[in-house]
Amino acid sequence: MKQLKLTGFIFFLFFLTESLTLSTKPQDVDDSSNIQKFIEENTGSLTIIAFAQYVQEATIDEMEMLVKDMKAYKDRCLANQTLPECSEIANNVLQEMICALEGVPQKHNFSHCCSKVDFERRLCFLYNKKANVEFLPPFPTLDPEEKCQAYKNNRESFLNHYMYEVARRNPFVFAPALLIVAARFEEVAKICCEEEQKANCFRTKAAPITQYLKALSSYQKTVCGAYLKFGLKVLNSINIAVFSKKFPQIEFKELTSLLEDVSAMYDGCCEGDVVRCIRGQNQVMNHICSKQDSISSKIEGCCEKKIPEREDCIINSKKDDRPKDLSLREAKFTDSENVCQERDTDPDNFFAEFIYEYSRRHQDLSTPELLRIGRVYEDLLGDCCNRENPPDCYRHAEDKFNETTEKSLKMVQQECQLFQNLGKDGLKYHYFIKLTKIAPQLSTEELMSLGNEMVTALTTCCTLSEEFACVDNLADLVLGELCGINENRTINPAVDHCCKANFAFRRPCFEALKADKMYVPPPVSQDSSTFHADWCQAQNEELQKKKIRFLVNLVKLKPELTNEDLKTLFINFTVAVEKCCKEQEPEVCFNEEGPEIGN
Ligand SMILES: *[C@@H]1O[C@H](CO)[C@@H](O)[C@H](O)[C@H]1NC(C)=O
Ligand SMILES: *[C@@H]1O[C@H](CO)[C@@H](O)[C@H](O)[C@H]1NC(C)=O
Ligand SMILES: *[C@@H]1O[C@H](CO)[C@@H](O)[C@H](O)[C@H]1NC(C)=O
Ligand SMILES: *[C@@H]1O[C@H](CO)[C@@H](O)[C@H](O)[C@H]1NC(C)=O
Ligand SMILES: *[C@@H]1O[C@H](CO)[C@@H](O)[C@H](O)[C@H]1NC(C)=O
After folding, report:
1. Which domain of life is it from (predicted)?
2. Residue 116 reports pLDDT greater than 70
3. Which ligand neighbours the alpha carbon of 576 most closely?
4. What is the pLDDT of residues 526-557, one digit of tens each?
5. Could you tell which of 57, 104, 106, 109 is best to mutate to test the pocket of ligand 2, judged by most ligand atoms within 8 Å of the CB?
6. Has residue 80 got a pLDDT over 80?
7. What fold does the segment set 3-218 form as a domain?
């Protein structure tokens, strides 16, 4: 965690339109005043995001108190920049104010963070974030008429409320993404509040926003998880692969310089420092937009947009075309006589350049696959460079790369085949059983959520032309969530090993896992074998959830059964439920019909 640097942005820069430490190129001054203005205008939202993500238990009233304090602080610093408190790091100021809220640290159990200072305190707040939000009530669903009334009465308070509810349930998503989500939600509210069928309108129009948030959150969590667990080198490899695929025209030197901005951005965003995150992202996008000629031909339209839409547009822009004269093979890494010497001169830079060259030539590969190939190459040179005739040995590197890719392709083909064979429901049952056997220690809710994500990945990706990259990327995010973001989870030794051994090889590692042998099932409670009539009241989605919960708990109780037996038992059970619910006395029927699962 050392890599979360202390060099925060000084808080007063936050509000100044010009500053000595910023570059004096005219366009830079313009950019920096834009971002300052943006941050200033959004002080309220940003305060809410940071507080709700750090202290998810906090109430909306406590939020509002803090927003008031922060706004007063901003006004004090705008009036007199030389006040000592105005030269503090933004995140320190915010946390200081959170700690100063009377009774709040005790009430929500984070006083231990307040007794620390600076870096230690920021780290403590980061560790206070809980990825699993089961302890929060479900997202409040207001009646649409009430919603529209609330919006009309007080736009700011309505949007702040929304931001609060979303942020506390997505504690790792980056602030700019939340600002976009809130802006889109407002658009939806504007449209839907004019409609007759408000509820219907909200439902259909809000769904893509939720999806957008989920996808971004999942990606950002996994990347931050990788950064916090494996450090800067892995963060950089991920971004080299991502940027080289997207911008294959970029030169390595330019990419290296861009990466400095990118890793500074992640440093702020992963820590939960909303100001540093927004500034960092702005810096990255300024860099990209100011060098469009040498970076990408596909982002011109994006660069004309304003923050934060500009950033979102660039992130979602299409991959640029591969330069015409770029051969599929870079001879430098396999055919040259002095590969080993070059590696030894500066190994980090050498392997970074390898991933760059390989990624821009193989835009159709997934990010984890590109990192796997990077690792295969490192291992190969580790072996070859100790031999008598290294060039003879590493000349065949490409075979190894292809072998690795073929293995991964096969895995994805099998996964998609499973989808074709089993259909969506069958696929769900398959993954719930599989995940529960591997990690029975996880809560039923978490296993359900991971299983659903895996199935969504396959149903979204299989049959797409980019099937391989799509599945491999998304399935890797599921494992990223399972492995944890701001904590090193201890689930069981086999799972823990896969999570921390090697970031790129998580997928194959998990694929090889068998049921956890050390796991001791809980004693069967009376409750789990008896049938409750409320099964008959449940419908559609709720019924489906009940069934799945039953299945996961069944696997937890009977991990020794084969997948086939578990499936039959489960299917027999659902058939019995259906039959008995049609009877006068379901309970009696069920006790006769229900399969024995309690012994
Ligand atoms: C601004 O604050 C500094 C430091 O506290 C103080 O010396 C100075 O008089 C203040 N200036 C104004 C205009 O209030
Ligand atoms: C409060 O936090 C401490 C330190 O993290 C922890 O040990 C304790 O279990 C927490 N108590 C509650 C009620 O959450
Ligand atoms: C590796 O795979 C690529 C793409 O399928 C192919 O063009 C290339 O000839 C293969 N190289 C070797 C050495 O098999
Ligand atoms: C998790 O493990 C990594 C690597 O061993 C370490 O750098 C990091 O500080 C640990 N994280 C936590 C939250 O303990
Ligand atoms: C499931 O039901 C079938 C047909 O009723 C029965 O033959 C089988 O033994 C049941 N299987 C289990 C595991 O209960």
Report:
1. Eukaryota
2. yes
3. 5
4. 555 566 677 888 888 888 888 899 999 999 99
5. 109
6. yes
7. Serum Albumin; Chain A, Domain 1 (1.10.246)
Does ligand 1 come within 6 angstroms of the Cβ of 78?
A: no
For domain 323-516, give its CATH number from 3.40.50.880, 1.20.210.10, 3.40.630.30, 1.10.246.10: 1.10.246.10
CA 227 to chain centre: 12
Average pLDDT, the chain: 90
pLDDT at 23: 35
In degrees rounded to 5, what are phi and psi of residue 103? 80, -15
Cβ–ligand 4 distance for 488 under 6 Å, the answer yes
DSSP output for 22-71: S---HHHHHHHHHHHHHHHHTHHHHHHHHHHHH-TT--HHHHHHHHHHHH
Look at residue 588 in the predicted model and tell me its pLDDT: 80
pLDDT-based confidence at 31, cuts 50/70/90?
Answer: low
**Ligand 5, atom nearest to 571 Cα:** 1
Going from the Cα of 83 to the center of ligand 1, the distance in angstroms, rounded, reads 6
Note the ligand closest to the C-alpha atom of 487. 4
Output 171 or 6, whichever has higher pLDDT.
Answer: 171
Alpha-carbon 198 to chain mean position: 31
Ligand 1 binding pocket includes 79 (Cβ within 6 Å)? no
Residue 517, Cβ neighbours under 10 Å: how many?
9
Q: Residue 46 above 60 pLDDT?
A: yes
**Helix/strand/coil (H/E/C) assignment for every residue in 513-530:** CCCCCCCCCCCCCHHHHC
pLDDT for res 531 = 65
Six-digit token string for 525: 């409670």
Residue ranges around ligand 3 (CB below 6 Å): 398-399, 402
Dist. CA 568 → ligand 5 center (Å): 7
Straight-line distance from the first to the last Cα atom of the chain, in angstroms, rounded to the nearest whole number:
47
What distance in angstroms lies between residue 69's CA and the mean position of ligand 1's atoms? 20
How many angstroms separate the CA atoms of 92 and 71, rounded? Answer: 16
Query: Residue 22: is its pLDDT beyond 80?
Result: no
For position 4, what pLDDT does the model report? 36
Q: Partners of 10 in the beta sheet?
A: 89
Closest ligand 2 atom to 112 CA: 4
Determine whether the shortest distance from the Cβ of 82 to ligand 1 is under 6 A: yes
**Does ligand 4 lie within 6 Å of residue 297's CB atom?**
no
Q: What is the pTM of this model?
A: 0.91
* CATH placement of domain 526-598: 1.10.246.10
308-315 contacts, C-beta under 8 A, 24 or more apart: 308/38, 308/176, 308/179, 308/180, 308/183, 308/278, 308/281, 309/180, 310/285, 311/176, 311/281, 311/282, 311/284, 311/285, 312/176, 312/177, 312/180, 314/285, 314/288, 314/289
Which ligand does the CA of 396 lie closest to? 3
What's the confidence (pLDDT) of residue 25?
Answer: 43
1 lines ligand 4 (CB under 6 A): yes
pLDDT tens digits, residue range 326-352?
988 888 999 999 999 999 999 999 999
* 496 within ligand 4 shell (Cβ under 6 A): no
Q: Which residue ranges does the chain devote to CATH 1.10.246.10?
A: 3-218, 323-516, 526-598
Q: Ligand nearest 566 Cα, by number?
A: 5
